[in-house]
């Protein structure tokens, strides 16, 4: 039996993974959902995310636990059809720059201490752990995390939207900028800049890096540490790589269609933001990233960029997710986090539960927006 009355109506701002996932979870519980996007689906961060599914490295215990739960939900989805080209678990491989072997060892020791599957490898051991890597690119040692994976978020969003439509969700594309309507101190729906109004019992703001700006007029201040970033997709190339790689000069993962997805942060200073909100970067810088990625792949195949997208990567000011109801405006919820891919399914599940029942989930206790009040 559904836990949500049929009259419960929720408006969601944002067509990325957090908004779409929450929408589908709400629909599964019998709610009425309207999803509004400023432009198209996956038009912002979800359309240019490396989307590495992991909880590697060191972070707060609640954040680690939430990320592990997030990976678990992807494992369940993967098990339902392991042949999906857009969701795979081939592990993760990382190493530091030359001379930083001790830092790599310390990270490995921390991961082992919390029960995270972590293997410290010498360069010559990499081939036996994961295929397609040029071990000559590894200066000292590397960490292989066998349980990690990756997802192509645009493909996942398309997959979830099939269920969204089948369950009767309402989609408003290209709605432009929207704001949260408030009456009597409580959320009453959303209004677009063009004058469209959409009444709702609850609203979720999941607008990526724009989320703090959307809720600021409501008296909710959320620090925004979002940097400009880029995702490059290469032309098709023959390779055997299955792992996500996080290295000093390039991050790389397999991508549907025999391509690679690439990103990093060293090129941020070369990105120019224009007055109309668009971004540009010199073509030779994009090619330089592809050349750095080529050094990681066995045989060093020539990698040619096919497309690249730039924009703000959502990161809250303190680095921790911001998930849950605003104390200033009951009925208005937010979803703002750096790890949108890893948390996409679990955050949608837990937020939908809170929106429908009013009961706060303990796993989100430390991520409330009220911590900034």
Automatic annotation (TrEMBL):
Keywords: Oxidoreductase. InterPro entries: FAD-dep_OxRdtase (IPR006076), FAD/NAD-bd_sf (IPR036188). It is an enzyme of class 1 (oxidoreductase). The keyword NAD does not apply. GO terms for molecular function: oxidoreductase activity. Its EC number is 1.-.-.-. Residues 9-352 form the FAD dependent oxidoreductase domain. The keyword Membrane does not apply. This is NAD(P)/FAD-dependent oxidoreductase. It comes from Arthrobacter sedimenti. The lineage of its organism: Bacteria, Bacillati, Actinomycetota, Actinomycetes, Micrococcales.
């Amino acid at each position: 039996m559904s836990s949500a009355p049929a009259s419960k109506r929720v408006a969601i701002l944002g067509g990325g993974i957090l908004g779409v996932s929450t929408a589908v979870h709400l629909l599964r519980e019998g709610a009425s959902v309207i999803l509004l996007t400023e432009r198209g689906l996956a038009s912002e961060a979800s359309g240019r995310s490396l989307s590495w599914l992991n909880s590697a490295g060191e972070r707060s215990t609640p954040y680690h636990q939430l990320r592990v739960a997030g990976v678990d939900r992807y494992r369940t989805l993967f098990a339902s059809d392991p042949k999906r080209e857009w969701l795979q678990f081939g592990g993760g491989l990382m190493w530091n720059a030359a001379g930083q072997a001790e830092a790599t060892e310390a990270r490995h020791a921390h991961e082992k201490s919390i029960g995270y599957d972590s293997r410290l490898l010498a360069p010559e051991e990499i081939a036996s752990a994961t295929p397609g890597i040029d071990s000559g690119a590894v200066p000292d040692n590397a960490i292989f995390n066998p349980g990690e994976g990756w997802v192509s978020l645009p493909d996942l969003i398309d997959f979830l939207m099939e269920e969204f439509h089948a369950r009767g969700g309402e989609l408003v594309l290209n709605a432009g900028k929207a704001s949260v309507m408030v009456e009597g101190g409580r959320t009453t729906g959303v209004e677009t800049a063009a004058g469209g109004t959409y009444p709702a019992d609850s609203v979720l703001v999941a607008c990526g890096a724009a989320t703090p700006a959307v809720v600021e007029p409501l008296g909710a201040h959320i620090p925004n540490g979002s940097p400009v970033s880029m995702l490059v997709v290469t032309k098709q190339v023959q390779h055997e790589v299955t792992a996500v790689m996080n290295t000093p000069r390039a991050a790389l993962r397999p991508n549907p269609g025999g391509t690679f997805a690439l990103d990093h942060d060293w090129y941020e200073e070369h990105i120019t933001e224009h007055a109309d909100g668009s971004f540009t970067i010199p073509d030779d810088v994009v090619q330089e990233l592809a050349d750095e990625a080529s050094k990681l792949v066995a045989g060093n195949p020539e990698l040619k960029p096919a497309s690249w997208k730039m924009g703000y990567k959502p990161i809250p000011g303190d680095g921790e997710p911001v998930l849950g109801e605003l104390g200033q405006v009951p009925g208005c919820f937010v979803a703002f986090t750096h790890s949108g891919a890893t948390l996409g399914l679990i955050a949608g599940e837990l937020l939908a539960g809170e929106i429908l029942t009013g009961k706060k989930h303990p796993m989100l206790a430390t991520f409330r927006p009220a911590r900034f009040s």
